[in-house]
Protein backbone atom coordinates (compact mmCIF):
# COMPACT_ATOMS: atom_id res chain seq x y z
CA UNK A 1 0.00 0.00 0.00
CA UNK A 2 1.34 3.43 -0.93
CA UNK A 3 2.11 5.65 2.03
CA UNK A 4 3.02 9.27 2.59
CA UNK A 5 4.78 10.38 5.76
CA UNK A 6 5.07 14.00 6.80
CA UNK A 7 7.59 15.17 9.36
CA UNK A 8 7.23 16.97 11.68
CA UNK A 9 3.59 16.46 12.59
CA UNK A 10 3.54 19.87 14.23
CA UNK A 11 5.86 22.86 14.24
CA UNK A 12 5.79 26.20 16.06
CA UNK A 13 8.34 28.88 15.18
CA UNK A 14 8.73 32.65 15.60
CA UNK A 15 7.80 34.93 12.76
CA UNK A 16 10.54 35.55 10.20
CA UNK A 17 12.20 32.16 10.31
CA UNK A 18 12.87 30.05 7.26
CA UNK A 19 11.55 26.54 7.63
CA UNK A 20 11.40 23.20 5.87
CA UNK A 21 8.56 20.70 5.86
CA UNK A 22 9.32 17.14 4.85
CA UNK A 23 7.33 14.57 2.93
CA UNK A 24 8.40 11.01 2.10
CA UNK A 25 6.59 8.49 -0.04
CA UNK A 26 6.98 4.80 -0.78
CA UNK A 27 6.05 4.74 -4.47
CA UNK A 28 8.79 6.23 -6.67
CA UNK A 29 6.67 5.74 -9.81
CA UNK A 30 4.69 8.92 -9.32
CA UNK A 31 3.20 11.24 -11.94
CA UNK A 32 3.33 14.32 -9.79
CA UNK A 33 3.40 15.58 -6.23
CA UNK A 34 1.25 18.38 -4.92
CA UNK A 35 1.53 20.53 -1.80
CA UNK A 36 -1.62 21.94 -0.23
CA UNK A 37 -2.50 24.28 2.57
CA UNK A 38 -5.54 23.71 4.77
CA UNK A 39 -6.91 26.26 7.23
CA UNK A 40 -8.99 24.93 10.15
CA UNK A 41 -12.33 23.55 9.01
CA UNK A 42 -11.71 24.60 5.44
CA UNK A 43 -10.90 22.96 2.15
CA UNK A 44 -7.49 22.52 0.55
CA UNK A 45 -5.67 25.25 -1.34
CA UNK A 46 -3.16 24.06 -3.92
CA UNK A 47 0.25 25.63 -3.37
CA UNK A 48 2.63 23.90 -5.76
CA UNK A 49 2.56 21.03 -8.22
CA UNK A 50 5.74 19.23 -9.23
CA UNK A 51 5.64 16.97 -12.24
CA UNK A 52 7.67 13.77 -12.09
CA UNK A 53 10.18 15.17 -14.61
CA UNK A 54 10.79 18.29 -12.52
CA UNK A 55 13.07 18.78 -9.52
CA UNK A 56 11.49 21.88 -7.99
CA UNK A 57 8.83 24.55 -8.25
CA UNK A 58 8.71 28.04 -6.76
CA UNK A 59 5.85 30.36 -5.94
CA UNK A 60 6.63 33.53 -4.02
CA UNK A 61 8.16 32.56 -0.67
CA UNK A 62 7.48 28.88 -1.26
CA UNK A 63 9.84 26.41 -2.89
CA UNK A 64 9.10 22.71 -3.26
CA UNK A 65 11.62 20.09 -4.32
CA UNK A 66 11.17 16.52 -5.48
CA UNK A 67 13.65 13.64 -5.36
CA UNK A 68 11.92 10.59 -6.76
CA UNK A 69 14.88 8.28 -6.27
CA UNK A 70 14.89 8.83 -2.53
CA UNK A 71 11.11 9.22 -2.26
CA UNK A 72 11.29 12.67 -0.75
CA UNK A 73 9.85 16.12 -1.21
CA UNK A 74 10.44 19.25 0.83
CA UNK A 75 8.48 22.48 1.12
CA UNK A 76 10.65 25.46 1.99
CA UNK A 77 8.92 28.55 3.41
CA UNK A 78 11.04 31.68 3.51
CA UNK A 79 10.55 34.53 5.96
CA UNK A 80 7.54 32.95 7.64
CA UNK A 81 4.56 35.11 8.60
CA UNK A 82 1.67 34.54 11.04
CA UNK A 83 -0.63 34.18 8.03
CA UNK A 84 1.32 31.05 7.05
CA UNK A 85 -0.14 29.25 10.06
CA UNK A 86 -2.11 26.28 8.71
CA UNK A 87 -1.81 22.57 8.08
CA UNK A 88 0.36 21.68 5.10
CA UNK A 89 -0.40 18.49 3.21
CA UNK A 90 1.58 16.70 0.56
CA UNK A 91 0.00 14.22 -1.82
CA UNK A 92 1.15 12.30 -4.82
CA UNK A 93 -0.59 10.89 -7.84
CA UNK A 94 0.74 7.60 -9.10
CA UNK A 95 -1.77 6.89 -11.86
CA UNK A 96 -2.20 3.34 -10.72
CA UNK A 97 -5.39 1.58 -9.76
CA UNK A 98 -6.20 4.25 -7.20
CA UNK A 99 -6.90 7.17 -9.52
CA UNK A 100 -6.68 9.87 -6.96
CA UNK A 101 -4.17 11.51 -4.70
CA UNK A 102 -2.52 9.68 -1.80
CA UNK A 103 -2.19 12.06 1.13
CA UNK A 104 -0.03 12.38 4.21
CA UNK A 105 -1.48 13.40 7.56
CA UNK A 106 0.00 16.86 7.29
CA UNK A 107 2.23 19.20 9.26
CA UNK A 108 0.40 21.60 11.57
CA UNK A 109 2.36 24.86 11.43
CA UNK A 110 2.05 27.77 13.85
CA UNK A 111 3.96 30.99 13.21
CA UNK A 112 4.22 33.04 16.41
CA UNK A 113 3.92 36.83 15.95
CA UNK B 1 -12.98 31.44 -5.00
CA UNK B 2 -11.34 28.14 -5.81
CA UNK B 3 -13.52 27.27 -8.79
CA UNK B 4 -14.99 24.32 -6.89
CA UNK B 5 -18.09 25.07 -4.83
CA UNK B 6 -19.63 22.74 -2.27
CA UNK B 7 -22.99 23.01 -0.55
CA UNK B 8 -23.99 22.91 2.18
CA UNK B 9 -20.97 23.94 4.23
CA UNK B 10 -22.37 22.31 7.36
CA UNK B 11 -24.88 19.49 7.76
CA UNK B 12 -26.28 17.75 10.80
CA UNK B 13 -28.39 14.69 10.11
CA UNK B 14 -29.95 11.83 12.01
CA UNK B 15 -29.07 8.23 11.23
CA UNK B 16 -32.39 7.68 9.47
CA UNK B 17 -32.26 10.82 7.33
CA UNK B 18 -31.53 11.10 3.63
CA UNK B 19 -29.47 14.03 2.48
CA UNK B 20 -27.28 15.00 -0.44
CA UNK B 21 -24.03 16.91 -0.79
CA UNK B 22 -23.51 18.98 -3.89
CA UNK B 23 -20.34 19.96 -5.72
CA UNK B 24 -19.98 22.20 -8.74
CA UNK B 25 -16.81 23.04 -10.62
CA UNK B 26 -16.39 26.01 -12.92
CA UNK B 27 -12.99 25.01 -14.29
CA UNK B 28 -13.96 22.96 -17.33
CA UNK B 29 -12.37 19.85 -15.81
CA UNK B 30 -13.13 16.30 -16.87
CA UNK B 31 -12.56 14.46 -13.58
CA UNK B 32 -14.24 14.93 -10.22
CA UNK B 33 -13.59 13.26 -6.88
CA UNK B 34 -15.08 12.79 -3.42
CA UNK B 35 -12.68 12.56 -0.47
CA UNK B 36 -13.39 11.98 3.21
CA UNK B 37 -11.30 13.65 5.92
CA UNK B 38 -11.67 12.22 9.41
CA UNK B 39 -9.87 13.48 12.49
CA UNK B 40 -6.23 12.40 12.67
CA UNK B 41 -6.42 10.40 9.44
CA UNK B 42 -5.17 11.22 5.95
CA UNK B 43 -7.70 12.19 3.32
CA UNK B 44 -9.32 9.08 1.87
CA UNK B 45 -10.44 8.83 -1.73
CA UNK B 46 -14.07 7.70 -1.99
CA UNK B 47 -15.15 8.08 -5.59
CA UNK B 48 -13.71 9.15 -8.92
CA UNK B 49 -15.65 10.23 -11.97
CA UNK B 50 -14.13 10.82 -15.37
CA UNK B 51 -16.31 12.26 -18.13
CA UNK B 52 -19.34 11.46 -15.98
CA UNK B 53 -18.47 7.76 -15.61
CA UNK B 54 -17.54 6.28 -12.25
CA UNK B 55 -14.00 4.94 -12.28
CA UNK B 56 -13.19 4.06 -8.70
CA UNK B 57 -15.34 2.93 -5.80
CA UNK B 58 -12.69 2.13 -3.23
CA UNK B 59 -14.97 -0.17 -1.27
CA UNK B 60 -17.08 2.62 0.11
CA UNK B 61 -20.22 1.47 2.00
CA UNK B 62 -23.42 1.55 -0.03
CA UNK B 63 -24.93 4.12 2.31
CA UNK B 64 -22.86 6.59 0.27
CA UNK B 65 -24.13 6.90 -3.30
CA UNK B 66 -22.47 9.23 -5.80
CA UNK B 67 -24.07 10.78 -8.84
CA UNK B 68 -22.47 12.74 -11.67
CA UNK B 69 -25.15 14.08 -14.03
CA UNK B 70 -22.65 16.11 -16.07
CA UNK B 71 -18.98 17.06 -15.99
CA UNK B 72 -19.63 20.13 -13.86
CA UNK B 73 -21.74 18.62 -11.09
CA UNK B 74 -21.17 15.88 -8.56
CA UNK B 75 -23.46 14.73 -5.78
CA UNK B 76 -23.03 12.45 -2.81
CA UNK B 77 -26.29 10.99 -1.59
CA UNK B 78 -26.34 9.95 2.05
CA UNK B 79 -28.71 7.40 3.63
CA UNK B 80 -28.79 5.67 7.03
CA UNK B 81 -25.38 6.96 8.05
CA UNK B 82 -23.55 6.05 11.24
CA UNK B 83 -21.98 8.44 13.76
CA UNK B 84 -18.52 7.34 12.58
CA UNK B 85 -19.37 8.82 9.18
CA UNK B 86 -19.09 12.28 10.71
CA UNK B 87 -16.24 13.98 8.86
CA UNK B 88 -15.31 16.71 6.42
CA UNK B 89 -16.30 15.68 2.90
CA UNK B 90 -14.25 17.30 0.19
CA UNK B 91 -14.91 17.50 -3.50
CA UNK B 92 -12.09 17.99 -5.99
CA UNK B 93 -11.64 18.25 -9.72
CA UNK B 94 -8.78 17.95 -12.19
CA UNK B 95 -8.39 18.47 -15.91
CA UNK B 96 -7.83 14.79 -16.55
CA UNK B 97 -7.93 11.58 -14.55
CA UNK B 98 -4.64 10.16 -15.74
CA UNK B 99 -1.43 11.59 -17.11
CA UNK B 100 0.19 14.85 -16.13
CA UNK B 101 -2.86 17.14 -16.08
CA UNK B 102 -4.00 15.87 -12.72
CA UNK B 103 -3.46 18.95 -10.56
CA UNK B 104 -6.34 18.80 -8.12
CA UNK B 105 -8.46 21.73 -6.98
CA UNK B 106 -10.61 21.33 -3.90
CA UNK B 107 -13.81 22.85 -2.61
CA UNK B 108 -14.28 24.19 0.91
CA UNK B 109 -15.86 20.97 2.09
CA UNK B 110 -19.04 19.98 3.88
CA UNK B 111 -18.73 19.37 7.60
CA UNK B 112 -21.09 16.46 8.27
CA UNK B 113 -22.24 15.49 11.73
CA UNK B 114 -24.35 12.35 12.16
CA UNK B 115 -26.33 12.24 15.38
Give a verbal description of the structure.
The complex is a heterodimer of chains A (113) and B (115). Chain A is mainly beta. Chain A has no helices and 11 strands. In chain A, the strands form 2 sheets. In chain A, strands 2, 4, 5, 9, 10 and 11 form a 6-stranded mixed beta sheet that branches. In chain A, a hairpin with a 7-residue loop joins β9 (86-93) and β10 (101-103). Chain A starts with a strand and ends with a strand. In chain B, strands 2, 4, 5, 6, 9, 10 and 11 form a 7-stranded mixed beta sheet that branches. In chain B, strands 1-3-8-7 form a 4-stranded antiparallel beta sheet, with no helix packed on it. The model of chain B has no long low-confidence stretch (mean pLDDT 91). Chain B is 0% helix and 55% strand. Chain B is mainly beta and 115 residues long. Chain B is globular. The interface between A and B is medium-sized, with 28 and 31 residues.
Amino acid sequence: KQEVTQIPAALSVPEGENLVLNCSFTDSAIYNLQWFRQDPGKGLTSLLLIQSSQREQTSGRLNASLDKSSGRSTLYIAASQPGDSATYLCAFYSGGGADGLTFGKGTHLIIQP
Amino acid sequence: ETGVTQTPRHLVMGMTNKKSLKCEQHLGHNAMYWYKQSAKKPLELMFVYSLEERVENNSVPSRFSPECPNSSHLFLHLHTLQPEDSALYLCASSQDRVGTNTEAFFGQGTRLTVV
